[in-house]
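dude i think i finally got it to work??
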Amino acid sequence: MTAGIDWGMGRYERTAEQLLPAARLVVDRAAPGPGERVVDLGCGTGNAALLCAARGARVTGVDPAARLLEVAREQAAHSKLEAEFVPGDAGAIPVGDGEADVLVSVFAVIFAPDAEAAAAEMARVTAPSGRIVLSAWIPDGAISKTARLAREAITKALDIPPGPPPFAWHEHDALAGLLGPHGFDVSLEEHTIAFTGGSAREYLLAESDNHPMALAGRAVLEARGESDALFQRMLEVCEAENEDPDAFRVTSHYVIATAERR
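look at this
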């Protein structure tokens, strides 16, 4: 859902596996019941969608990446679960008005280029008695810092002015201001998730080779001979914040936001 990024590049499956614990918590908070209609916005490989389907919900997963939709369909078939996966994004959700009893989004809608448009679309497809549950990163810690370094390096390499700060999906007042006009009350709870590897270098190399955002950034920076310098700066951050003296472990904080119709 990030403009200009093809999330089908690389192997987002690796990231999806890392984020599965958060998907479980989001689905637990959403608590879809048998027969309820669920939309998983930015479904990726289908983590949350399939968890909802396993509860007996009627699920539609929406994502702009065709390859990830195919992976999700394969996962559903392998698990013998019923779920539909269709192309689309947060700016134009391919679901009718009020058709979703539950809308979930696990670290996905937060990358929408237009938060207000995404909020309007989520509100449109959510039933009058429905609910929205999403997860959003708190911008702190090693992973957030390395992502910020990458954004700054790419912006400088392309000689483009920095854009406005991203919408604060992790802040209660910001979310209340975004979804309140659509008739939702918002509550937040904070959680953590760990990212691990044999070493900081090993972790970063795997991210560089697999994550779609890392691959897109590397393509820009390698052409200018600037990729190695960025990697070194990111490595320094990860090593400084490493929590495991024998391997690699850093903790990221995130929120789960629940928005319910008044």
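The radius of gyration is 18 Å.
im so relieved honestly
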